[in-house]
Input
Amino acid sequence: MPKKHKDISNSKIYEPMRFWWVYFAISLSVLIPGVSSLIKNGLKLGIDFTGGSSISWIAPSLTKESIVEAFENQNISVSSVTLQGEMTTITTPPIDRNDYSQVLFKVKDSEGFKELSFDTVGPSLGAELIKKTFYGIAAAASLILLYVAYRFKNFKFGVSAIIAMLHDLFVVLGIFSLLGKYAHVEVDTLFVTALLTILSFSVHDTIVVFDRVREIKKQHAYLTFEEITNRAVVETMARSINNSMTIIFMLLAMYLLGGTTIKWFILALLVGTASGTYSSTFTAAPILVIWERLSKKLR
Output
């Protein structure tokens, strides 16, 4: 005999989808400043993208002025000098090892000096990396769209998941555009890694919500689509938050205690994790409900 399911049409349930406009307003309050900065200022690209030389020293006795002077004496312009405790990071246009050796000869006898790294990236490699970044994001979005649409047998699910994913992408890009403008934060290859990781996490949480929508629809087909989505969101919200908090606590520990080289990478993951948790429930699900309403009206 077919399995009977309990009638839950009159059972008490919260209705988070009633407030879809509040969720969209919250998203827009973050997206509008960030995207505006992204259009106007772009991202502050590191040498991984623009090409150049990156040099790291431990030089407690050298001042910013003396470092710039040492390079300019060799006709080498300095793009930036960052002092973080005893560690100094210098970026310049691409320079060869011989010119760098002349600079090193002048400063290596200063008290406490130690060379940590010297890396050079050509401008052609940087341009190629930018191109591959766009290709990678486009490929990931296309494959996710097709997979979600196939698994849920409905194109609406795939498109809603992609919109939520792009929401998270632009939240992170916008925030880092603002950080680049006002805090001179540069993005590098680690930032690209963070973006691709964020896309994966965003869709992972969205699929959990969508899967619950599908299960409730099978078991309780007499409910309206909005009622089904409300129940799916309420039933999966605690699980999503608990899962995300374990990741956020770990990332916070790494951000506060980790080294400066991964600081902005960890921050990108933190922002993306928080945004991904929010968008799975409060962006993807409302889009699905609104789309269903519009479809009914058109029919």
The longest strand covers residues 114-121. The mean pLDDT is 87. The domain at 52-121 is CATH 3.30.70.3400 (Alpha-Beta Plaits).
